[in-house]
Amino acid sequence: MSGTFYGVGLGPGDPDLITRRAARLIENATIIAYPSLAGGDSFARSIAADLIPATAREIRMDVPMTRQRAPAQAAYDVGAAQIAEALVQGHDVVCLCEGDPFFYGSFMYLFARLKSRFRVEVVPGVTSVTACAAVAAMPLTARNEVMTVLPGPLPDVALRDHLRAADTLVVMKVGRHLARLRTLLADEGLTGTYIERATLGSEVVLPLSEAPDDAPYFSMILVTKGADPWL
Amino acid sequence: MSGTFYGVGLGPGDPDLITRRAARLIENATIIAYPSLAGGDSFARSIAADLIPATAREIRMDVPMTRQRAPAQAAYDVGAAQIAEALVQGHDVVCLCEGDPFFYGSFMYLFARLKSRFRVEVVPGVTSVTACAAVAAMPLTARNEVMTVLPGPLPDVALRDHLRAADTLVVMKVGRHLARLRTLLADEGLTGTYIERATLGSEVVLPLSEAPDDAPYFSMILVTKGADPWL
Hints:
Two copies of one chain form a homodimer. In chain A, the strands form two sheets. In chain A, strands 3-2-4-1-5 form a five-stranded parallel sheet, sandwiched between helices. In chain A, strands 6-7-10-8-9 form a five-stranded mixed sheet, with helices on both faces. In chain A, β2, α2 and β3 form a beta-alpha-beta unit. With about 230 residues, the first copy, chain A, is of the alpha/beta class. Chain A has helices at about 20-25, 45-50, 70-90, 105-115, 130-135, 155-165, 180-185; strands at about 5-10, 30-35, 55-65, 95, 120-125, 145-150, 170, 195, 205, 220-225. In chain A, α3 (about 70-90) crosses α4. β6 (about 145-150) of chain A pairs antiparallel with β6 (about 145-150) of chain B, so a sheet runs across the interface. Chains A, B: Keywords: Cobalamin biosynthesis, Methyltransferase, S-adenosyl-L-methionine, Transferase.
């Protein structure tokens, strides 16, 4: 009988924000898998590092950062094949995922390749959205407010309508788009809070007006128009 | 010195989805606080029940379910006053919150009343959004896709524009609005997946077409137009 493929959300970065279920799966894992970007350290692995058994076999998928999708696809193809081999042999495989596996997560690329052949279980995790709200002390949504999550790389025209329509805006993947996003928000009469590396030791929380133009990829802007939770 | 007021996210319902930090705070609590609705059991307390020390003092806020806001406000006023009294005496207070404290959470009403006078720390939790995606095996968002969270009680005209504009739609608080929402989605050529009580023993996952018209309040519809995570 084949093993189970676990997609395990690890939360935003602080190992204390790993769920009890995720922690137990990692502590008991014989095979773990995780992505790393362009030869760098794996952020997912670093979150879970203290929990990984020394005896566990590690399947590392190094994903190149290119505009073309084919090289990344090839990395996931190779990783999925290695994972499939272990599953066929009856081993469970625990895939480490930053945040939540199904929320802008690379786990989805493995899920798409393996779901038809194997039992897959996803353990949801704390996302950077609510982690950023917590560290910024900003309530996100109350009552019947609408919240939209927007990737910062989208063009202005796509962003603008959403900025107008929702009560709460979560702009992800800010990075080098920060100056453009700040201008776009200001043009709509909006300001926000900038958060970088939420829940990590190097965390930064600033009014958007004071945020650095060279923001890292893992940064976010939160805008709340409503969320008056007094009443 | 006053104590700290902790808003602790407990996740969607399965106690295993409590984070390690939340579990430790509850296990060591001397005073816990939580809401209950209209004289019923507290869902938040039930999630954390196994972790609550027998010796802990419990501040229960019974919130009436009325259309008028004043009775609920009064309940939070009374609860905030009890919590403030304990904080002034130097005790920490751990407030139990379903899901995440700042995501449609009643914790916000206490936060608004206490934040200017006391140290408050929010521990983010797994939201029902990613929990529902996990149990339904539905990737939510990949790459630069846009996700909007919509409360089901909103009028059709407010919902329709968002249904058209986002790639992924999360309709919360479905309850008695289910039939109307299903029609509204169908009119836009959309269908979705219905999830009820995600991660609890009584969990239900169905195509929206098969969902019961008398859905409970804690139910959700997920719609993904994009999220093709193969590439």
